Amino acid sequence: MGDFILLMVSAILVNNILLIRFLGNCPFLGVSRSMETATGMGLAVIFVLTLAGMITWLVHHFLLIPLGLEYLRTIAFILVIATLVQFVEMVIQKTAPPLYEALGIYLPLITTNCAVLGVAIINIEEGYNLITAIFFSFASACGFALALVLMAGMRERFALVQIPKPLEGTAIGLITAGLIALAFSGFIGLV
Amino acid sequence: MSLRDEFTKGLWQTVPPFRLVLGLCPTLAVTTTGVNGIGMGLATTFVLIFSNLFVSLLRKLIPPQVRIASFIVIIASFVVIVELVMQAYFYTLFKVLGIFIPLIVVNCIILGRAEAFASRNNPLMALADGLGIGLGFTISLFVLGCIREVLGSGTILGVFIMWPGFEPFTFMLKPPGAFVALGIVLGFMNLISHWQARR
Known about the structure:
The complex is a heterodimer. Chain A has nine helices and no strands. In chain A, helix 1 runs parallel beside helix 8 and helix 3 (about 35-65) packs across helix 4 (about 75-95). Chain A is globular, with a radius of gyration of 17 Å. By secondary structure, chain A is an all-alpha fold. By secondary structure, chain B is an all-alpha fold. Chain B has one domain (about 5-145). The interface of A and B includes residues 26, 165, 168 and 175 of A.
């Protein structure tokens, strides 16, 4: 159990997937303009990433390895993720309309979120077993959501202050992300 | 727009990752040196050119309902080629770029160009667009890599160029430095565009 707690802390704070590993930065800057969209995206990513981490692990160990097709990993994983996202979208739409209302528009965006494919590949390259892989995927997604919500909280305040003209929009967003990353690097050495 | 316009727009007007804020993950992660920037840029350019070409050639055959999935399969095929070629011939670079090579598949620049440009234009135009955007991306990564390399370790392409006793600014090589450097370069580009517009 202790190992899992360490893995959680490490994936959320020390090796934060957005700020330290640099995966999933496009939605990070794209949807962090308001708190509402950031929470929606964060929840959608937690949901899909955990499922995708599990399914890609199964595909790799029970389909690609027995058939000797490991070199097709990239294609296989992206297809699994794209299908999964489509499938999750349909299932949620049918079974939980309120959840679909909240996550709906963010789901298609997740296919091209490199955090999902990135975590799936890390799971395989680190040689995690199934349980660890699921845990790691979940923890990474939580780290993603945490950083996204923190960023949105800060960016909402930008509406109230005067920013030098050339730095408006994305530029100041990037510098803010740098400062958040600096704060997160304080956790290095924790695990 | 002429063929030449399609090519040159990728170099300044819509240069990724600055103007089109896409493809940020590799930009931030691998630009610790100029060489890494070029390597990543060229790998992405290769995939972009061929995916643009094939998407454009097949644009009349792909049904619109499944176009995104088809584009991803086309892109992923070329990424696998790049992955295998780099593993065979550029092993050190392959190790340094690591996970970001398979992640070219989900680089939003490539899917973005396929959807917004290649699927609506003829193959020649798509080729020019892919070449322009790809070169723009490569140059951006190279410039960003050089800035971080000079400040972070005092070298350009591995050659030490700063004065003796220069204290490297290691912050620039760390993840937070990547965000700040990209933000400041983007700020300068906005400033230059602003001056140009006023003149």
